[in-house]
Amino acid sequence: MDPPLNEIYNTLLYNQITNTEQNVPDIPMSFSVTAVVEEVELPVIDVSRLINGAEKDREKCKEEIARASREWGFFQVINHGMSMDVLEKMRQEQVRVFREPFGKKSKSEKFSAGSYRWGTPSATCLRQLSWSEAFHVPMTDISDNKDLTILSSIMEKFASESEALAYLLAEVLAEKSGQKSDYFKENCVRNTCYLRMNRYPPCPKPSEVYGLMPHTDSDFLTILYQDQVGGLQLIKDDRWIAVKPNPRALIINIGDLFQAWSNGMYKSVEHRVMTNPTVERFSTAYFLCPSYDSVIECSSDYPTYRNFSFREFRQQVQEDVKKLGFKVGLPRFLNPLY
């Protein structure tokens, strides 16, 4: 298997040991693989109205975006302005780079050290294991890449178009929460954002291992381009639901920073990717992130969260993952005064 997930995690896969015997901290209840009640289609929003619509249509579109962000934390956008040709070529190049031998891609010089990731090095039980591989690529790797390959060219186009869409949506959400819409262009500049190319290989124990562990995103918002295999699930009304793929749409989800910045108005919702026994899955995500020194501040007389920098937030997440095997996230930053 490429990457060597089966080999490296053989003990976890085939020697069932309880968390107590392994001295593993208790993991959240949401990590249990519960039955999915139904497959649903996320709210679908035609964002072309933001640019081409009359004032009434623009306002209705803004309300739909804000409502979906409050009630779901996830929504889909169509007529989003991203070129289908760029999206299709992005998928082709992504598949090609993942087809390279493990030894080559794990030491790839295409991107900075540590960009290629696979499995979960810190996993001590099955619920902490992500059966996937990814290239997590800083925008600086793309913008500064002088090796004009097809991959770097397509990633640059994908990033530029994602950036424009992310700014558009973030400014709408800022307006609807009564905050300054220029915050994002001032703090979420090109060099602070990321692209992530994901591959989820077939898994021998799909009922016991995640493709990607339950988590929330540590950014303002995420733009996801996925194939039609399915596997993405999220929590809605205290239960897991499966997201029905839509070939016309991109998926948008709210991240932790937007939940904190909006004082809880918009929801950063826990989500996961399930594995498949026979079919691999691909997706590409763009993450709208601020600079490390940017301060996330609730504009409220009764802020739910204390002020914190993006650097502080990331460091806390990394410490928790290393110590506990999973991310704690925003609960670490609750305001002790309220």
From TrEMBL:
Show where the Fe2OG dioxygenase domain sits: 191-290
Q: Name one Pfam family in it.
A: 2OG-FeII_Oxy
Give the protein name, as stated in the record: Gibberellin 2-beta-dioxygenase 8-like
Q: What is the lineage of its organism?
A: Eukaryota, Viridiplantae, Streptophyta, Embryophyta, Tracheophyta
Q: What family is this?
A: Belongs to the iron/ascorbate-dependent oxidoreductase family.
- The superkingdom listed in its UniProt entry is Eukaryota
Q: Which PROSITE patterns match?
A: FE2OG_OXY
The species is Camelina sativa
Q: Which InterPro entries does the record match to this protein?
A: DIOX_N (IPR026992), IPNS-like_FE2OG_OXY (IPR044861), IPNS-like_sf (IPR027443), Iron_ascorbate_oxido_reductase (IPR050231), Oxoglu/Fe-dep_dioxygenase_dom (IPR005123)
Keywords noted in UniProt: Iron, Metal-binding, Oxidoreductase
